[in-house]
Design brief:
Strand content: over 45%
Number of domains: 2
Helix content: 10-25%
CATH topology of the largest domain: Neuraminidase
Largest sheet: 4 strands, antiparallel
CATH class of the largest domain: Mainly Beta
Order of helices and strands: HEEEEEEEEEEEEEEEEEEEEEEH
CATH superfamily of the largest domain: TolB, C-terminal domain
Radius of gyration: 20 Å
Structural class: mainly beta
Shape: globular
Distance between the termini: 14 Å
Strand order of the largest sheet: 4-3-2-21
Number of helices: 2
Length: 251
């Protein structure tokens, strides 16, 4: 009996891992912060920044602190319960793309440059020229490859890979959608979010984007950031049932 319960318990854990609800934070042009579930295309308003529009946002994976930058080049930490921003300092350069690496180093893109940003002062240090104008976001994949949405032409923005040591950009392809101001990975899938209120899946080999749907609440995305995956309600119930079975056995 103990063995069967342990097998059931292990299977429950695997179900939880295999069926996450993938959520991101999205910021819009009015300074609002949303919690957005890609799997269901549902979103909920968290609150307003109090300082105007976020030009991009990024979650620090080490501290689970959300950061945002404004059009005035000011870096803020963001309360994910209220959406409100607390000023850190001025970057000294225009930045409209943010992302953290796995070690908690914040990168920024703006105009044709890649930067590292100091979380204590907000100041930005140039890594180098990307050769492409930043459209609005950056994203790392699980292998540490850095991608940027770049300004293209009337047919759409471009997907560019960046060298984190030199800043040099390499063109991958045309996304086929304009104003891709938000990027976020879920596993190996790169998602894009546009000011045109669209959610995209982007092929990182070809650069092409496919529209999945108009995002929940019709959010005109100005930035996006990863948020922690959470278990589906059904799997949480199953998990609780497994634990209850173990507790009953102990009595």
């Amino acid at each position: 009996m103990k063995q069967r319960l342990l097998i059931f318990f292990a299977a429950t854990i695997m179900l939880i891992i295999a069926n996450p609800v993938y959520a991101v934070f999205i910021a819009d042009g009015g300074g609002n912060l949303y919690d957005y579930d890609i799997a269901t295309n549902n979103s909920s308003l968290i609150g307003n920044s109090g300082v105007g529009a976020w030009f991009d946002i990024a979650m620090n994976p080490v501290t689970n602190t959300l950061y945002g930058i404004t059009g005035g080049e000011e870096l803020y930490s963001i309360d994910t319960d209220s959406g409100y921003g607390t000023d850190i300092g001025n970057a000294g350069s225009f930045i409209n793309g943010l992302v953290f690496d796995t070690n908690g180093q914040l990168y920024g893109s703006g105009n044709r440059n890649l930067y590292t940003i100091d979380l204590n002062s907000g100041s930005a240090t140039s890594v180098g020229s990307t050769g492409y104008y930043s459209s609005g976001d950056l994203a790392f994949d699980t292998s540490g490859n850095l991608y940027m949405s770049a300004m293209g032409n009337s047919s759409g923005d471009l997907l560019v890979s960046l060298d984190t040591s030199l800043g040099t950009g390499t063109l991958i392809g045309n996304i086929g959608f304009r104003n891709v101001y938000g990027l976020s990975f879920s596993g190996t899938t790169l998602y894009g979010f546009t000011a045109g209120k669209e959610t995209l899946a982007i092929d990182t080999d070809l650069g092409t984007g496919s529209k999945l749907f108009g995002n929940g609440n019709n959010i005109n995305a100005y930035g996006a950031s990863d948020a922690a995956p959470v278990p589906e309600p059904a799997t949480m119930l199953l998990f609780g049932t497994g634990l209850a079975g173990l507790r009953r056995k102990k009595k």
